[in-house]
Amino acid sequence: MNPRPVVAILLEPPRLGVKPRLAEEAGAHHALRLYRVLAARTLAAVRALDLPAVIWFSPIEAQPEMRHWLGPDWELRPQPSGSLGPRLAAAAHGIAPGAPWIVVLTESLGLAPAQLRSAVDALMDFPAVLGPASGGGCYLIGAQRPLPGLAAGLVDGEAPLPALRRALDKLAPGWRELDELRTIDTGADARAEGLLG
Question: In 10 A of CB 47, how many CB atoms?
Fold first, then answer.
């Protein structure tokens, strides 16, 4: 039986200015409140499945703030600075060798236990999984083993999904794509999910 995957979650501290597109429409305080709610949902899903997890945070000086927010029970590690590629690679490579892994990206916050469970279950039968998000994004990616070079094709300013699909075709043939999830980036997204009136 495969061991349980380790979940790496990319998070920012809960500050005014998070989710800037949503903040423009709904206001910075509403955007911050929703960010906290969505983060709490994802963390609760990890706890509900009793999965080992690491929180990768950015910026590096935010560790005291993250500890105050999340409490003492989560392992915290700083993300490298820069674009998504190095940050994703660091989180994936930070898992103990031989352990299956899942990286949950910041834009996927709000994952339900059933959605995370689908990724965990898929890793029992497939070499890798990819969760597409609306607009060409990605809410999670995972694999049964390390995938060196996975993030090499990611380009700043471009949607990561096509590049990650190409990388998985080469590095983990037979990988599984999960159901698409809506990214909560705008007021319309939040209203569609019942998060704004």
Answer: 13
Answer yes or no: is 77 within a domain.
yes
CA 188, CA 87: separation in Å to the nearest integer? Answer: 29
Domain count, the chain: 1
Determine if the pTM surpasses 0.85.
Answer: yes
The answer as to whether 197 is a domain residue is no
Full 3-state SS string of 90-150? HHHHCCCCCCCEEEECHHHCCCCHHHHHHHHHHHHHCCEEEEEECCCEEEEEEECCCCCCC
In 3D space, the residue among 52, 62, 60 whose CA is nearest the CA of residue 3 turns out to be 52
d(CA 110, CA 139): 10
CATH (domain of 177): 3.90.550.10
In a domain, 42, yes or no: yes
Task: Give dist(CA 7, CA 165) in Å, integer.
Answer: 20
CB 12 within 8 A of CB 57: yes
Phi-psi region of 174 (alpha: psi -120 to 50; beta: other; left: phi over 0): left
Instruction: Please give the Cα distance from 169 to 173 (Å, whole number).
Output: 5
Residue 95 has pLDDT above 60, yes or no: yes
| Per-residue pLDDT reduced to its tens digit, 111-140 | 889 999 999 999 999 999 999 988 788 899
Q: Is residue 1 part of a domain?
A: no
